[in-house]
Design brief:
seven-stranded mixed beta sheet, Substrate Binding Domain Of DNAk, Chain A, domain 1, five-stranded mixed beta sheet, alpha+beta, about 20% helix, 6 helices, 3 domains
């Protein structure tokens, strides 16, 4: 993957815990590095943002920042709150974008050499009394490759003061890894030293590559902010992912086809598209929603009632699409007329399409 433009400073800020974790990367750096900051004097997120901005400006101009925020949840209200705090602290709105933890972890893993993720990759985050464990699986046969993250498991291993911690961790590793192929394990929150983890360490490392992976989410967010304009060779699926390619029936060179307006794979709240088109036939637009996971497309018609009658090809329309949830598409169509001969009528049409399914899992025509 190419490096960021000269002068650009990329950062990932992890707000999942009480104290933010920050990683940064300049164009001269090969990989992101932690930015150690003391937030003990900060009273709220706004003061945390001020401290982070002050530290990042040591490496370049404020206008050259690109910052990814990892939020506890990605509700519209939550994103607006964090953006407001960041902007009042001095960041520019266009420099910020919001991410979930899983997407950042996936990008961190997929940025490693491909021998790391040839089989399952497990992430083990060590806490005081338990280990948060989850796997990342890559379907290398699909194009683009599909990446999925399992729901977290919580391994109750007891504290370091407990003499049974090593034995309990060993039991979890054996039970979980005995019937699957694991090519790599990343551990955080521990150094996995031989004194405290003599048995479980040996089991973890047997025929597997094990890495210390501190601040993996913040590193992945920093990488995503750097690679944001690049086409990724993988598609990460989660509850924020847009799972449909959106197309519209069109006519080109006298032949009918489906023109792809919007592609799946991005976060649904970032899925926005506007374009102009010429109406060639009756006043109706026909949309297709193609599910990335397979199955028949969902088809929908949008009737433009009361549109002024004009000759064929003499009506220009502005089409605007956006998603208000992963399965709810809003379409707005505005009549732009056609030059001085056919002035715009100022008519505006709006429609909301829901992605519904039959009991057998296939789409149906709307």
């Amino acid at each position: 993957m190419s490096m960021a433009n000269m002068g650009e400073i990329c950062a990932g800020i992890d707000f999942l815990k009480e104290t933010p974790k920050v990683c940064y990367q300049t164009a001269q750096m090969k990989d992101p590095e932690p930015l150690p900051l003391d937030f003990s004097s900060c009273m709220d997120n706004k003061s945390c943002f001020r401290k982070i901005l002050s530290a990042l400006k040591r490496y370049g101009k404020k206008e050259e920042l690109c910052v990814a925020l990892i939020l506890p949840n990605l509700s519209q209200k939550e994103m607006e709150t964090y953006q407001k705090d960041a902007c009042e602290a001095g960041f520019l709105a266009e420099q910020l974008f919001m991410l979930g933890e899983e997407e950042c972890l996936v990008h961190f893993v997929m940025h490693q050499s491909n021998d790391i993720w040839q089989q399952q990759v497990w992430l083990l985050d060590f806490g005081m009394d338990e280990v948060k464990a989850r796997s990342i699986v890559v379907n290398k046969r699909s194009r683009p490759m599909l990446v999925q993250v399992s729901s977290p498991e919580y391994w109750h291993v007891g504290s370091l003061l407990s003499k049974e911690r090593d034995d309990r961790l060993l039991a979890y590793v054996r039970e979980t890894f005995s019937k699957i192929h694991v090519s790599a394990v990343f551990v955080a929150g521990t150094d996995l030293n031989e004194k405290d983890y003599q048995k479980s360490r040996e089991e973890l490392c047997y025929r597997r590559r094990v890495f210390l992976g501190e601040q993996m989410a913040a590193r992945g967010a920093c990488m995503l902010s750097r690679d944001r304009k690049e086409q990724k060779p993988y598609l990460f699926l989660n509850e924020q992912t847009l799972l449909y390619n959106v197309g519209i029936r069109s006519v080109k060179m006298g032949e009918e086809s489906v023109y792809t307006v919007m592609r799946a794979g991005c976060n649904w709240y970032e899925a926005k598209k506007s374009l102009e088109l010429i109406l060639q036939s009756e006043a109706v637009l026909e949309f297709s929603f193609w599910p990335m996971m397979g199955g028949e497309p969902i088809r929908a018609g949008m009737f433009l009632n009361d549109l002024p009658k004009r000759p064929r090809g003499a009506t220009r329309l502005l089409l605007e699409l956006s998603f208000v949830s992963a399965t709810e598409c809003e379409v707005k169509v505005t009549d732009l007329g056609f030059g001085e001969l056919y002035p715009a009528s100022e008519l505006c049409f709006k429609e909301t399409f829901l992605m519904e399914e039959k009991d057998d899992g296939t789409g149906y025509d709307m």
